[in-house]
């Protein structure tokens, strides 16, 4: 491998960790939500809410901790609203998710208009900055922000919660058979409302990473499809955090690769290179769909089915 090829690989790996982080947070939030039995198509809007709130909070108070908290609270509130309509009022989960998406797009465009392109910086040193002099490892890990490592910890935490804790078992029971869980004494509505709120919180953190740590500015509709990618990664990962993580890093690597290829002047149309990550993601979705056709995977049986307290499902 030449020095140029080696530098390209290192650059792609380092960039993949950063580019995948917003997708990981949003994907983990949707995974929790879907494991409880509720589908949310408004991830893009939740991430926009977090991104806008983080920039606004940082410009007002100047601390990254407060910015992340505000982003999580704002998106968590929107996630709770979505869950309320879907769980309590039993509205269409598809229509409600799209409504949340369009509402958040409009609100953030209006609220964030005054903050467009205003530079923000968390002012936080990378946690492993001491590794920077180390060849390869220093380039890959030494410059990563705290939320990149937080995404890994979040994936582990979600896995432990879902598959190694009593509360996780109850949540998954609500997604597999809501009326059976209710017969066993589980408060299905409360569990699904909590899952919807958690989805919003994690999506808000993903959006906050995008605006505060990755782009370090606010731009209208800056999420640019990452919410949909997160939704695809949940399906590709068969509703398991580890597989979701793998898919997100693959997407992040492709995004970084096409940027590096464009920067190196590769003789290929710019728009073809820009399409590459999304074409591969589409292929992954098709492959996952074929697998689900012949094998149930981890898809919750009651996903998208409204729950009636009387014990009947629509």
Return the string of H and E elements. Answer: HHHHHHHHHHHH
Global outline = globular
* Percent helix: over 70%
With helices defined by DSSP (H or I, 4 residues minimum), what is the helix count? 12
Textual characterization of the structure:
By secondary structure, the chain is mainly α. The protein has a domain at 20-224. The protein has helices spanning 3-35, 43-61, 64-88, 93-111, 137-141, 146-164, 166-176, 178-183, 188-214, 226-236, 241-263, 270-294. The longest helix has 33 residues, at 3-35. The radius of gyration is 20 Å and the shape is globular. The mean pLDDT is 89.
Give a topology summary.
Layout: H1 3-35, H2 43-61, H3 64-88, H4 93-111, H5 137-141, H6 146-164, H7 166-176, H8 178-183, H9 188-214, H10 226-236, H11 241-263, H12 270-294
Helix pairs in contact: 1-6, 1-9, 1-10, 1-11, 2-3, 2-4, 2-9, 2-10, 3-4, 3-9, 6-7, 10-11, 10-12, 11-12
Descriptive keywords:
globular, 71% helix, 314 residues, 12 helices, mainly alpha
Provide a brief overview of the structure.
By secondary structure, the protein is mainly alpha-helical. Helices cover 71% and strands 0% of the residues. It is built from 12 helices and no strands.
């Amino acid at each position: 491998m030449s020095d140029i090829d080696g530098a390209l690989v290192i650059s792609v790996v380092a960039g993949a960790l950063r580019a995948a982080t917003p997708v990981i947070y949003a994907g983990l939030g949707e995974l929790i939500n879907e494991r409880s039995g509720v589908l949310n198509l408004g991830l893009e809007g939740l991430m926009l809410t977090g991104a806008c709130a983080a920039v606004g909070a940082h410009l007002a108070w100047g601390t990254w901790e407060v910015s992340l908290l505000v982003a999580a609270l704002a998106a968590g509130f929107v996630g709770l609203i979505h869950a309320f309509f879907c769980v309590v009022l039993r509205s269409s989960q598809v229509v409600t998710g799209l409504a949340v998406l369009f509402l958040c797009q409009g609100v953030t465009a209006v609220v964030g208009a005054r903050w467009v392109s205003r530079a923000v910086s968390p002012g936080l040193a990378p946690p492993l900055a001491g590794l920077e002099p180390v060849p390869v490892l220093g380039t890959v890990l030494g410059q990563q922000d705290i939320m990149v490592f937080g995404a890994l910890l979040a994936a582990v935490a979600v896995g432990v919660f879902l598959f190694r804790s009593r509360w996780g078992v109850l949540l998954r029971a609500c997604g597999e058979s809501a009326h059976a869980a209710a017969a066993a004494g589980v408060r299905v509505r409360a569990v699904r409302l909590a899952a919807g709120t958690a989805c919003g919180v994690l999506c808000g953190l993903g959006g906050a990473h995008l605006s505060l740590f990755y782009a370090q500015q606010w731009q209208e509709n800056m999420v640019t499809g990452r919410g949909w990618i997160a939704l695809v990664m949940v399906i590709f990962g068969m509703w398991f955090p580890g597989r979701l993580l793998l898919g997100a890093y693959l997407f992040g690597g492709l995004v970084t690769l096409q940027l590096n290829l464009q920067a190196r002047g590769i003789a290929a149309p710019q728009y073809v290179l820009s399409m590459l990550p999304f074409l591969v993601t589409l292929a992954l979705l098709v492959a996952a769909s074929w697998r689900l056709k012949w094998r149930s995977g981890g898809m919750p049986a009651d996903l998208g089915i409204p729950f009636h307290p009387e014990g009947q499902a629509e």
